[in-house]
């Protein structure tokens, strides 16, 4: 039997680690006694890493060669990667825009990292892939097709990794939060709309709360990590009556367009009633 995953003395890479959930994960992994935490981000990685005595490497995760170079450097300077947290993410623009960027970061980053890491993990019989997706990967995203599609892709790829390599020692978790106090939810007009929806559907969590949930889930080797219990309720409604759920989402979209979504209004019943 493969032993439970403990972070102590492990080599961990966190992409998108300079801010938001990634930064909170890097801090928490360090607190859990990881041998080394590597913070990777498009920019600002060294500054963020210095706060916890970690290694910072700037990396554009939508570029396969940069992802390979990132992992090569970690293995040369620190040691074999035990856990890769594919956390970097981008919004998808509005409506049908932004597909190239969203797919490159939110999906292909995961593919590039897995291509490089999984063969070694299978040979060792041990490795952990942590994918940050979104509640939008289980449900959908009103407004941005690219975000919804790319996050569904991240969930599907994590499922595939677990199905294909789970018996070979590769463990996989996928994080699907709803509202988290990060730049993706606090910057720009699109983010304001998303914040209005998720704050009406459930609590806005702090990144540190999400990181604590992730550590517990990784220790338990739990595949699906949902810090917001409401997401499971919505997901179950979707599965039990797809057409009714879609109708509810259309009503929710109409309410947003009409400006009828005050911050205090509850959406607990919106996707099904």
What would your notes on this structure say?
By secondary structure, the chain is an alpha/beta fold. The chain has a single domain, classed as NAD(P)-binding Rossmann-like Domain (Rossmann fold, 3-Layer(aba) Sandwich), CATH 3.40.50. Helix content is 51%, strand content 12%. It has a 7-stranded parallel β-sheet, with helices on both faces. Strand 5, helix 5 and strand 6 form a beta-alpha-beta unit. The radius of gyration is 18 Å and the shape is globular. The termini are far apart.
Give me the secondary-structure topology.
Elements: E1 11-15, H1 20-31, E2 36-41, H2 45-50, E3 55-58, H3 64-77, E4 83-86, H4 99-124, E5 127-132, H5 145-165, E6 170-175, H6 183-186, H7 189-201, H8 207-220, E7 224-225, H9 229-240, H10 242-257
Parallel strand pairs: 1-2, 1-4, 2-3, 4-5, 5-6, 6-7
Helix pairs in contact: 1-8, 3-4, 4-5, 9-10
What attributes characterize this protein structure?
Rossmann fold, seven-stranded parallel beta sheet, 273 residues, alpha/beta, 51% helix
Low-confidence stretches: 262-273
CATH architecture: 3-Layer(aba) Sandwich
Q: Average pLDDT, to the nearest integer? A: 89
- The helix/strand series, from N terminus to C terminus, equals EHEHEHEHEHEHHHEHH
Tell me roughly what share of residues is in helical segments.
Answer: 40-55%
Please, how many helices?
A: 10
Strand order in the sheet with the most strands = 3-2-1-4-5-6-7
The CATH topology assignment is: Rossmann fold
- Tell me the radius of gyration: 18 Å
CATH superfamily: NAD(P)-binding Rossmann-like Domain
Q: What gross morphology would you assign?
A: globular
Q: Calculate the terminal CA-CA distance, rounded to whole Å.
A: 45 Å
* Main sheet specs: 7 strands, parallel
DSSP strand content:
5-15%
Structural class: alpha/beta
Whole-number count of domains: 1
Q: Under the CATH scheme, which class? A: Alpha Beta
Number of DSSP-assigned strands: 7
């Amino acid at each position: 039997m493969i032993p439970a995953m403990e972070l102590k003395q492990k080599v961990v890479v966190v992409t998108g680690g300079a801010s938001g959930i990634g930064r909170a994960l890097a801090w928490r992994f360090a607190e859990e006694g990881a041998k080394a935490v590597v913070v990777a981000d498009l920019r600002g990685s060294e500054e963020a890493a210095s706060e916890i005595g970690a290694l910072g490497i700037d990396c554009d995760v939508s570029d396969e060669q940069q992802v390979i170079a990132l992992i090569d450097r970690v293995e040369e300077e620190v040691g074999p990667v035990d856990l890769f947290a594919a956390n970097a993410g981008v919004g998808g623009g509005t409506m049908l825009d932004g597909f190239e960027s969203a797919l490159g970061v939110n999906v292909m980053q995961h593919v590039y990292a897995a291509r490089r890491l999984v063969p070694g993990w299978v040979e060792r019989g041990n490795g952990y892939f942590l994918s940050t997706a979104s509640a939008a990967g289980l449900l959908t995203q009103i407004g941005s097709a690219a975000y919804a599609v790319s996050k569904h892709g991240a969930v599907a790829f994590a499922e595939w990794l677990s199905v294909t390599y789970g018996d070979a020692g590769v463990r996989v978790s996928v994080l699907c939060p709803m509202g988290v106090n990060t730049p993706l939810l606090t910057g720009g007009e699109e983010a304001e709309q998303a914040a209005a929806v998720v704050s009406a559907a459930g609590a806005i969590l702090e990144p540190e709360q999400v990181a604590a949930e992730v550590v517990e889930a990784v220790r338990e080797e739990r595949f699906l990590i949902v810090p917001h219990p409401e997401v499971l309720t919505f997901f179950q409604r979707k599965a039990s009556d797809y057409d009714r759920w879609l109708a509810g989402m259309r009503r929710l979209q109409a309410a947003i367009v009409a400006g009828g979504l005050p911050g205090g209004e509850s959406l607990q019943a919106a996707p099904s009633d």
